[in-house]
Amino acid sequence: MTTQQYSSKIIKAGALLSDTKAFLSAWDPSLSMEENLDRIRRHNLLGKTSRSRLDDILAVFRQRYLAEEDVTRALATLVRRNCNGSTLQWIFYFHAARADRLLHDVVTELIAPLWSRGIMNVDAQEIESALRKWVENGRTCGAWSDYTIYRVTRGVLSTLRDFGVLQGAIHKRIAPAYLSIEAFCYVAFYLKQHQPSGTKFLNLPDWRLFFLSQEGVERCLLEAHQRGLLEYHVAGSVMRLTFPAATLEEYANVLTK
User: Fold this and answer.
1) Measured between alpha carbons, how far is residue 228 from residues 75, 215, 234, 239 in Å?
2) What is the value of pTM for the model shown?
3) What dotted CATH number matches 181-255?
4) pLDDT band at 178 (very low <50, low <70, confident <90, very high)
């Protein structure tokens, strides 16, 4: 996961779900990243009314979905093969949160602990207060004004609502969690590539993005194993996890059969 300081880009970004699908639908795997971006920009394939807005969105997509070629190709495959919309939404959310440390930490450090205590209401003022402390502790790219903190807080909460993590137009609540097994498997494949240790894998902070404890991860692995989407075996403290594909792009094809 990226270790950059927090930025305020979320003010301009949001979830951008329909734009993300259009962007990945237009992606040509035979072209380089720069060639794809240039083609999408020249032909305005996202249908934006201004060049500056298009450039803002493409900059966000570059950060979220283009840092790893295998991820880009896998996401484009999922979209082309008409992957279930809910599954796509959770996968987009996963990559967006990993690319934006602020979004990631708001969920894992502020909202997930509420969930674990059975608290469903999310108080915007409490989130704003936490962000203000993070700014004071130097976790942001420079100082933020009170107005910026206010806008970032609203931007984060509305983005999480659009991704399905929260619900409510004004008063936010944690949404009833339903992570499809296909989305779980995609995330598991990606994380296993980055963390081969079985014990560490089960306790990665990224699972808190979905409010999953170690036991929750293990239950999902068992279900995925039963459905033939992966092989999961445990013998004492030894865990073996294997997948029927060598790359994330290949696994995207498996998940959309």
Assistant:
1) 21, 20, 16, 17
2) 0.95
3) 1.10.10
4) confident
